[in-house]
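Deliverable D2.4 — example input (structure tokens):
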């Protein structure tokens, strides 16, 4: 039954992605609140984006020739950026058992409940055609306060359909944007079934045609990602663990 539900969800997702350009044109972009380090709190507990230290989320995707595993860990480490104490999230992507990318993301929540994104330290691991390592790349890395980069918002305190917002502000490097689509989706993934999920559409003007739909379960966070790069790649949550 769950396989049927997931297949149906994928078909519906394809149909929804066709009309997303119109939704972008109709979106209402909000103005970010004035940035003030005094407005931030130490705990990130937004219901759609809670960051509980020592929690690990595992996501998997299968394509015709790749098996992808993405492991995301909310660490108990902090990083101070622009006088704001940020939570450090560690993200490792493996493709066919080989590490392809490692990222440290930095988030903090304001006292209204919005979660801000302060940047990322990303390392891409490069390989030749035979699979031998040939180096690394830091492309896409950015940090608020450096070289004109500014923090954006990764999750609104009160997301409502039709609202759009910018998540990253580093010109020509990181300019991700998001649009709230729905608040009441049912999502079935390998880990569990979830009601009343928030659905967003995310894109960047730096990669035309690259679109993602993300599904967030209340009280847990991201449970499903549908990447659209000419075809649908489905990343779904398969496990969640928490160390005491």
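Example output (designed residues):
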């Amino acid at each position: 039954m769950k396989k049927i539900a997931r297949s149906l969800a994928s078909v519906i997702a394809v149909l929804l992605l066709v009309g997303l350009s119109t939704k972008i044109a109709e979106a209402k972009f909000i103005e970010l609140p004035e940035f003030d380090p005094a407005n931030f709190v130490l705990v990130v507990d937004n219901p759609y984006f809670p960051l509980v230290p020592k929690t690990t989320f595992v996501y998997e995707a299968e394509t015709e020739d790749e098996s992808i595993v993405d492991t995301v860990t909310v660490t108990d480490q902090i990083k101070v950026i622009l006088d704001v104490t940020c939570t450090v999230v560690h993200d490792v992507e493996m493709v066919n058992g080989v590490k392809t990318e490692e990222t440290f993301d930095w988030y903090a929540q304001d006292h209204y409940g919005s979660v801000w994104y302060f940047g990322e330290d990303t390392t891409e691991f490069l390989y030749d055609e035979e699979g031998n390592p040939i180096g690394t790349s830091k492309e896409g890395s950015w940090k608020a306060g450096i070289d004109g980069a500014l923090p954006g918002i990764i999750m609104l305190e009160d997301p409502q359909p039709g609202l759009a917002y910018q998540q990253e502000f580093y010109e020509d490097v990181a300019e991700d944007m998001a649009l709230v689509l729905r608040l009441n989706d049912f999502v079935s993934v390998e880990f569990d079934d979830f009601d009343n999920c928030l659905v967003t559409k995310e894109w960047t003007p730096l990669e035309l045609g690259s679109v993602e739909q993300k599904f967030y379960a209340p009280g847990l966070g991201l449970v499903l990602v549908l990447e659209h790069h000419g075809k649908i790649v489905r990343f779904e949550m398969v496990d969640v663990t928490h160390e005491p």
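Confidence is low (pLDDT under 50) at residues 1-18.
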